[in-house]
Amino acid sequence: MLLTPRFVFTFYFLCGVIGLAILSLSTAFSQTSLLSGQVNSVTETRGLVGVHAVLTSYSAPITTQYAVSGNEGRFAFENVHKGLYRLTLSHVGYQTLVIDSIACHQQRIELGELTLALSQQALEEVVIRTKKPVIHYESDRFRVDVQAMHTRGDQGIDLLGRIPGVKLDRDGELSLQGKTGVLVYINGKQSYLTGNALLSYLKSLPASDIASIDFLPTPSASYDAAGSGAS
């Protein structure tokens, strides 16, 4: 029996690899902040993985950045412009935590440990069903299992819009957690589609043909700065 081929999208962005024009960019970077913190559960001693963090500015134009806590419950927002922000932390089974009036005026801001309380919603009946997790966390990546999502009628571009921290603008510029320069790999091979060509491809690709999407915030040494792909 022939099976429909599945596509595995692997997105990479390179951090601190390209050293061109460092002097000319140093002033611009000094005007932004790195905002970070750690999310803990009130019932556990270790960090809470998979917390969705949303950072929204108060001043116009309103900007929004997204992040997901990693293995130790750590999250971070880079290149945050000076100003006041609201931070929202949410996770299934926990009460949403909102922190208002975070002033970003320093180069590095550490919020420390933040604790999410369990949801106090009363349930008349508890039904436990086994459900395949959508997001899997590994040491160097997190993987979105598309087959565990409801994607009927969706295209690839619709799917990307549903994943926290991923943004594809109208010009086809792809960013991950606010960072551009994302490399796209399809079934282990680098794709050089960008801009409108990438948009057209994702609009024509059924989401049901995608098996999973891997996100690697820190690519291994096997991927060079020129984006030549795996050696």
TrEMBL record:
Gene3D superfamilies: Carboxypeptidase-like, regulatory domain. Signal peptide: none annotated. GO terms for molecular function: carbohydrate binding. InterPro entries: Carb-bd-like_fold. Coiled coil: none annotated. It comes from the Bacteria. Pfam families: CarbopepD_reg_2. This is TonB-dependent receptor.
